[in-house]
Amino acid sequence: MMRYLPGLLLIALASVGITLVLVSRPQPAPEHPPAPISSAVLDRLPARRAGQVLIYGAYGFTGAGIARLASEYGITPVLAGRNESKLRPLAEELGYDYVVLSLENNHDNLVKVLSRFEIVLHIAGPYTFTAGPMLNAAVESGTHYLDLTGENHVIQQQLDRDEEFRRADIMVMPAVGYDVVPTDCLNVYVAAKIRRPTQLTVVLDGSFTDAAGAQASRGTMKSALEMLGRPLLKRENGAMVPMGTPRLMHRSEAGREQTLLQIPWADMMTSYVSTGIPNIEVFQVQEGELPEWLLRVAQNEAGRRILSWLIDNFAPEGPPPGAQEQRQTRIVSTVSNDAGATASAALITPEAYLLTFHSTLIVARRVIDGHWEPGFQTVGKVYGPDLVLEVPGVSRADL
Q1: Which helix (H) or strand (E) holds 98?
Q2: Residue 234 buriedness (CB in 10 A; 0-12 / 13-18 / 19+)
Q3: d(Cα 320, Cα 317) in Å, to the nearest integer?
Q4: Is 13 within 8 Å of 5 (Cβ atoms)?
């Protein structure tokens, strides 16, 4: 019997793997669009779009956090998403209207709904799959678009449509959360301190003041998984080029031995637009070793589906409130130029999701108040380095 055990184990593992792949296989888009949205539903939506905000993906961890905070910024949003059983309880809790709306093959209904709103806060990722349908509807309906993507290829696709957005007279601004409001604002700040900076290095320490239970939400994990499944790129001499193996650096900081892991952060897109600096590297302070197998599995389609299924079924919705209140992050940005001049500054911020709730609504409030520019835009370029200081708990210091 023992001699057959390895073979039986392999068969069992293969069966589990095949089952997980089948279970996690993405649902195909419907062949036919759903029925036109009813007049009864449309009648519940705002009659005049000025100042009106739609939060799509409202029942996810981040969307719900934004929805709960919206009233503090004088915003009464309508909540939207595809799952009524998750959407309706949140809307009833907060006293907001809601609309059930899918993205797949549903362009006409999306346009009808977005036409009632000045801004859509698109909080449903991974944006690889969700940004296109929402953007297409926003262009046709003339609705400003804000999202939280950190996916470089998605931001590049949006940048490539800049002229289309300008003709539609709408602002499209990606990454209005932790990825990348604090970094973009800090990078604009330090870039102005020296002449013609040519190198930008950003170091993110997400556990500067740590808290038990502070971890990524399911949506963030799935977006990160999508990025890991694509070629890893960096900004070099103005172009996005393959990163190869991510670089590791070791340092001692305030008595702590740290490993810095190079990551494909969205600043390589947004801060290039905001500052024009041609060489950008981003590092994350890594606690523990990144499993080597993770990248290999994530770069395999079947492996991504299995990991995505595991995230959906076993990962927590997001960090508990106590962790959000206690945790802080630290970001250090350093610029240099060919003449040898350098400048550095640091930001201390609240926990990443808590910052995102505030920063998204701060930007939305600016748009409602008429402070926006048509086309593809970045936070640092339009609103300058001090916007992030409006988030409670953020401080900045020159180094």
Answers
A1: strand 98-100
A2: buried
A3: 9
A4: no
What tens digit of pLDDT does each residue of 303-358 get?
667 766 666 666 666 666 666 667 889 999 999 999 999 999 999 999 999 999 99
CA distance 233 to 249: 18
pLDDT beyond 70 at 361: yes
DSSP, residue by residue, 339-399: TS-EEEEEEEEE-HHHHHHHHHHHHHHHHHTT---SEE--HHHHH-TTGGGGSTT-EEEE-
Task: Give 243-299 as a DSSP string.
Answer: --SPPEEEEEETTEEEEEEE---THHHHHHHHH--SEEEEEEEESSPPPHHHHHHHT
Tokens 């969700």 sit on residue: 130
CA distance 21 to 10: 16
* Cβ neighbours, 10 Å, residue 15: 10
Structure confidence by residue, pLDDT tens digits, 177-206: 998 999 999 999 999 999 999 999 999 988
The token pair that represents 254 in the structure block: 């305030």
Residues forming beta bridges with residue 241, ordered by sequence position: 234
Residues 6+ apart with CB under 8 A from 79: 54, 55, 58, 59, 63, 67, 87, 90, 91, 94, 96, 97, 98, 99
Residue 263: which residues within 8 A CB-CB, separation 6 or more? 204, 246, 282, 283, 284
Q: What would you measure as the largest C-alpha separation in the chain, in angstroms?
A: 76
Here the tokens at position 42 are: 């449309």
Contact 218, 312 (CB under 8 A): yes
Identify the CA nearest to 186 among candidates 356, 374, 343.
Answer: 343
pTM recorded for the entire structure: 0.84
123 and 55 Cβ atoms separated by less than 8 Å? yes
23 band by pLDDT with thresholds 50, 70 and 90:
very low
Give the single-character DSSP code of 177: B
Q: Please give the domain boundaries of the chain with CATH numbers for all domains.
A: 39-173 (3.40.50.720), 181-352+385-398 (3.30.360)
Residue 293 tokens read as 């197998």
Whole-number Å distance between alpha carbons of 132 and 125: 11
